[in-house]
Design a protein that fits this description.
Elements lengths: L3 E3 H8 L3 H10 L6 E3 L2 E5 H10 L17
Antiparallel strand pairs: 1-3, 2-3
């Protein structure tokens, strides 16, 4: 079964606000997401892939305030 994370959960993991996540979605960057019933959800596997692509791997999450890829 696919596990989805809420915007709040992903924000906590990435140490980013919901506003930042919203801006990333509008720009087409950040982790992949889906909208189900009007809710923004992130598949846990897609978030893990995003973190690996950013060079996070199993290490620390990128510094607060950094743009995706920095």
């Amino acid at each position: 079964m696919v596990e989805f994370l809420t915007e709040t959960e992903v924000g906590a993991i990435l140490r980013r606000s919901r506003i930042t996540l919203s801006k990333w979605r509008a720009k087409g960057c950040g982790p992949k997401f889906v909208k189900i019933g009007g809710r923004v959800l992130y598949e846990s596997r897609a978030l893990a892939e995003y973190l690996r692509a950013q060079g996070a791997g199993d290490g620390p999450v990128p510094a607060a305030g950094a743009a995706p890829g920095e």
